[in-house]
Amino acid sequence: MIIDKKGKLFGKISIIDIFIVLVILAVAVFAIGKFTGNNGITNLQEPAPVEFTLLMEDAPAVLVDGTFEVGDPAIDRTTGAYLGTVSKIVKDPCITETPTADGKIVSAEKPNHYRLYVTVKGSGFVTDSGVTVSNNNFYINRQSDVRFGDTMLYMRMIGYKAIEE
After folding, report:
1. pLDDT means per 10 residues in the chain (165 residues)?
2. Which region holds residue 135: left if phi is over 0, alpha if psi is between -120 and 50, else beta?
3. The whole model's pTM is what?
4. Spacing of C-alpha 97 from chain mean position
């Protein structure tokens, strides 16, 4: 017989041992495929010019006024990915919903706070799942700590597009 009474193959190798080795090999193959995946990008492709739009909802004036400017580099703190350079900064009033004394909710401008839009021009690969920059995926509604020069802001990506230069 191939399998004896003790569950060993040819009397030497346990079937459980074979099963465990096969599971370990399957996990290893999956992990290698997962962590070395290229997101549909080949090594022959060159990064294309991309424009990102980032938003900070409730930016204090002390962080916004003069701490960074157009031309400063934009770097994602978590991944270290260089996103590009700041091409446009728009400060809109920060409008918040505030309860009144009689219990109604009204929209009111929050003093010394802005809704900050920052446009960054860089390069990357536009894919179905967002933009890949330095092997890191950036997608709509991703929140990141982004460093502009010496200023760090917690921003949310609200848009991206490939641009022609």
Report:
1. 66 76 90 68 74 92 85 92 93 89 90 92 87 88 90 91 82
2. left
3. 0.68
4. 29
